[in-house]
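Amino Acid Chain and Its Fold in Token Form
===========================================
What this section holds: a protein sequence and its matching fold, both as plain text.
Structure line: whole-number tokens from a learned vocabulary of local backbone shapes, matched to residues.
Purpose: to set a sequence beside its fold so the mapping can be learned.
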Amino acid sequence: MTEMKKKKILSLLTIFLLVAMTSPVLADSKSACVAIGADNTESQLKTVYNYFNIKRGAVEEIKVTNEDEREYLEDVVSLDKIGTLALSSVYVQEKSSGGIDLETHNIDWVTDAMYKSALGTAGIKNAKVIVAAYTPVSGTGALTGIYKAYEAATDTSLDEAAKSTAVEEVAVVGELQDEIGDDAVNIINSLKGEIAQTKNMDDDEIRQLILKTADKYDTNLDDQQVEDILTLVNKFNTLNMDPDTFIKLLEAGQGTQGFFQQVADFFQQIGSFFNKQN
């Protein structure tokens, strides 16, 4: 086989793989909406729209004020995390399947994993979400924008109790993360995966489950942390949540690594094929 022919085959295989990776997302896209922080200047919004990678006016745009943010955040998130200005902006695109595709820009406290977990709690299962600000912000206020943009894009209303619980979840997980690291969100998602059982447990049984779950991640929780998580779990128990959503979130990291390993194996097989032709 000539070198030219090998290069053509490799190029075609690469294009085929890229199309296979992107086509389901493109075919699955639906309505979209942008929720902008009301205190951004026109120049700052230009930066934000660059992160969204769309032209302003391409999709519906709504505003979120600091008062809107405080509707969910006050008495749950510390004032220094809320701030006095609405600067976070979000792009939300509805999808029929595929879970949450999320990226963030200039968000320095709420992690991607925290957003994904909280959105599942709020009832958002399939969407492309981009959270951005022109300057670093905590990202707590973006939850309100995500809610409003998702409801506008889908013409639906999320459950108010679920939205409030999701905000409280971010507050609890964020404080835990400051103390114990990234396993904070894994502990919460593990507990949400057990909701079919926790609904039938008393508080002492849930406390034992919390400690047992933390132990799986080699984490020690103090009494106050256990009580904060207990309050959260009891709120989860009142919501109509699908535990499989959060089990999949726990498995997502391993699944992504598995996918890229398959890609690496694929190209290694191509290399082996060409070597055999020499």
In short: DSSP finds twelve helices and five strands in the chain. The mean pLDDT is 85. The chain has one domain: 3-266.
